[in-house]
Structure formats: structure tokens, C-alpha cells
Amino acid sequence: MNIEHLIKRSRWVSLIVALGGAGCLVIGIVALAAAAPGIKAAANAPQAMTVMVPGFILLGAGLVVLAMAGLSYAAMSLKIQSMSDDHWQYEQLRGGMETQRQLLEGIRDSAALSDSAKQIAYRHKDREALRHAIREDIDKNDYDGAYWLAAEMERRFGNRQEAAQFRDMVESARKGFIEREVHEALEHFDQLLKKFDWSAAVREMEQLTRTFTGHADVVRLPDRIQAAKENHKRTLLKEWKDAVTKEDVDRSVELLKQLDQYLTPGEGEGFKEIARDVFKKQLQQLGVQFALQCNDKNWGEAIRIGQQITDQFPNTRIAAEVREVMPSLRDKLNQPVGAI
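RESULT FIELD:
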């Protein structure tokens, strides 16, 4: 029997009892009222009391019944309230136990699932996790890992179209990354060409060839190095010819030394006579400068020029003559000023 039904039933019982008491009270009052003429006509008190006793009994019974009904209703209300509180706590406890029971049943059902059933149950979550992992690998430039995950999506979920879209996305991201890397590397490569640092340019080319094998811009790097060398050689030749025409011996010799690494044996043979004439003029100029410095008693500069003659033209007659006087020049350089 539930609490609501018990409360309703108790209220009806209290109401019936109260109505019964009220009925007795009303009947008693009516009886007393009806007995009033008889009381006046009675000759003595005993006879009057005899007439009034039933009325008083009914009146007292009605009051007692009403009082009992009220007290019982109050006691019953307190009891019902207590039972209602107990019932509420019981329902709360039962609800918590029911929640725990459902949770345990869910855990039991999950534990009882086979691997295949688990794959079906968590298929959507696994697919979302795989998509997130692919995008994360792309952001980290881990393109091989992203390719593998795209293949896993096709293998595990059979979604060929989405896997193909992800592979296209990975390939596009890889190409963009490679193009940026190649562009930055080529900028550094171009700086090396502008500095005519051919050995460093060759090392950079080899590194790029290993890293970006088959890239169109990287494949053309050997031709770019060769073309840059040829352009630089033509520039040096033009400047050298201009210096020779202007009889700028020092500049001619400097340019000729730079050209030496670019000229082929055949080209060098063609410029041999001109080069010999340039070196002859340089030797003559050095000889004149050496004599002038000796004449001015500028021994330090004379020694420097003499050393240059012996180093650059060791087999010439002038070099032999310079070597003969070099010891005396050093002695004069080391003597105190005014002792000469």
C-alpha cells in the first residue's frame, strides 16, 4: 500500500469518526431541546434528570468522539509525515541504487562485448579520432604518418572516398611544404652564386639533391652553377682586356690570377702571349719601383717589393739581382738612423 492511498484512507476514517461525533452532539442537543418542556412539567428534580440524561449522554459522547477524532487526526498526521519522510529517503536511496545498478550493467555489458562488437559500438568515435590524428600529423609535417592513417581509415572503415580525400590533402600539404623549403634553400644558393663561392654552392647543391630528389628546380642546379661560372668568366675577361688596353698592369695581373681557375687549357694558350706581356710589364714596373725605393733609402718598402719580385718571378734575371742585394738591405734596415 502506497503512502498516498494510506493518507487518503486515514483522512476518510477521521472524517467519518468526526461526523459520527458531530451527529451524536447534534442529537444530544436536539434531545435536550425536546426535553425542555418535560423538565418544566416535571414535579420534582429526579423526574427532570430522568428526562435530561439521554440528552447529556449523547452530548458528552459527541464531544468525546469529536475530541478523539481531532487527536487521532493530529497523531495520524504526524505519523503520516514521518512515514512520508521515510518514504522520500527510501525513494532517494532506491533511485541511487538503481543508477548504480544501471551503471554496473553498462560496465558489464561493455566488458562482455567482443572486439568486433566494440568496434561497431565505438565506430563513430574511432573515425573522428582518426580524422583528428590525420590533421594533426599534417600540421606537424609528418606526411608519412598521415598517409598511413589515411590507409588505416580505408582498411578499417572501408571509406575509400574519404581516405582518398585525405591522401589528396596530405599530398597538397607535402608539396606546399617542399616548395617553401626549396624556395628558402634556393635563396641561399643564389647568394652563394653572387659571392662566386663555387665550392659552397656545390655542397649546397649536393645537399638539396639528397633532400629533394627529383625536384625540377633542384635538378637544374648543376646547369645554374655552370652558367654562373661562364657569366663570371666572361665578365673577368672583359675587365681584363680593358685593363690590358689601359695598360693597368696591377689590375691586369689581379684579373689574370682570377681567370686562371676558369680558363680551359685551350683558352689559356690563346691568352698566353698577352699574359706574358702583362707579367713582363709588371716585372719591369716592380724593378723600377725597387730601384726608386733603394735610391730613396726606403729600405722597408724596397725589401717588400724585392720579396714580391723573388716570389712571383723567381727565375728572372732581376730576381737574381734582387736576391744578391737583399741581405745588405736588411742590414741597413736594422742599423740605427743616421748610422748609414
